[in-house]
Amino acid sequence: NGECALAVYHAMSSGTTTACRDAWGKDIPYLVEVSSTGDKINEKYISTAEFTGDELAQKLSAYATASGDAKNWFKNITVADSKRVVSLEFCGKELSGSTVSKALSLRSSNFSIEYNGEKFVFTVLGYGHGVGMSQTGANYMAQQGSSYKEILTHYYTGCEIEK
Asked: Is 32 within 8 Å of 25 (Cβ atoms)?
């Protein structure tokens, strides 16, 4: 609409970028989910992080006190269409996926959690907040012959490039 776009970017999506409303609670029409296939073939696409119950309890202690059986610490996990965790309950306290990701130093809020009886294992896809242009995906598109205009209009849906 004749205004400069908020051209946010991140290192690597999980194969689909995240809508601004899901990451930051604000709907911006051109910051929507788009495919980013080049991200999935990157060697750093998947990462894991492991925590003992004590380590996890300490890292999340600012938000809730861990109590009860550790296998029940995480409940009601809500994910966006892009599979990023929007919210979850940790020991009865609702937290955002972004809060948990930051507290645990995960590469993104697109994670799954498994508890094996001794440790919590977080499997994480992508790197960064996931909104806007994926640098890894944009690089892949360029290597496949896409122009900068094609790349920008792909990641910033509905925007026009003007002088």
From this structure: no
> Distance between CA 138 and CA 13 in Å, rounded?
11
What amino acid is encoded at 143 in this protein?
Answer: Q
Q: Which residues pair with 122 in a beta bridge?
A: 49, 113
Q: Which residues pair with 136 in a beta bridge?
A: none
Host H or E run for residue 134 = strand 133-134
Residue with tokens 């955002």: 96
Which amino acid is present at 86? Answer: V
Q: What is the DSSP letter of 141?
A: H
Angle between helices 135-143 and 148-155 (to 10 degrees): 140
Distance CA 98, CA 85 (A): 8
Tell if the pTM clears 0.70, that is, is over it. Answer: yes
C-alpha to C-alpha distance for 130 and 109, rounded to whole angstroms: 9
- Compute mean pLDDT per 10 residues along the chain, 163 residues long, and list them: 90 93 90 94 93 94 90 91 89 92 95 94 95 96 96 94 86
If we measure between CA atoms, which residue out of 17, 38, 31 comes closest to residue 137?
A: 38
What pairing do the DSSP bridges indicate for beta strands 133-134 and 9-10? parallel
